[in-house]
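lol ok so funny story. i was supposed to be doing the assay writeup but got distracted and ended up predicting the structure for this chain instead. priorities right. anyway since i did it might as well share w the group, maybe its usefull for someone
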Amino acid sequence: MVVGYIDPNSDVIAQWQASGINHDHVDDGIREPNVPNSDDIDATDGDENAVDHYHMTTLEGIDEATKIVVWVYGRGTSGEQAICNARIDDELYLGAWTCTNTTFAWRSHTYNGSWTQSDIDGLQIRFTADSNYGKYDGTWIRACYMEITYSEVSLGYGHDFLGVPAENIDNVSGVPTANIDKIKGV
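and the output, tada:
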């Protein structure tokens, strides 16, 4: 299995407060446990139920993805949080309550399943501001990304030669097998 990372790359809905393009504020290319820069998006007083929703970059060569971990670096105020959801293949997966502490920290939510290249190509992430007390005071998010565990598409030849698996044959008469499209009609 291989692990790869994808980041927000465009806004679908941008209702949280930020200067400029919202996804730029949370796409730091930073991975847990590193601390991102202090640029963030925020939902503050009066932003109850505000939504920020992003398209994600993608990975190539996925045969099957089996685990998606959503990582978020942020904080809330006492009793406030953001609901973080992943959208996979147009289905909204319920996520974790995140940013419930009053100090900035990394938090994650894991989804296990079976997804295709097409599913990963269409991944999105959504944050919804929420309050336990009816008056929303604020949540701040500084970074988010997804960690994808997957198996790679096999690119080897499908035929064995004299009992040797094709993927173990490096060359034929000095020509690298990666450069051979056909072997006399095979």
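The longest helix spans residues 22-26. The longest strand covers residues 62-76.
back to the writeup now i swear
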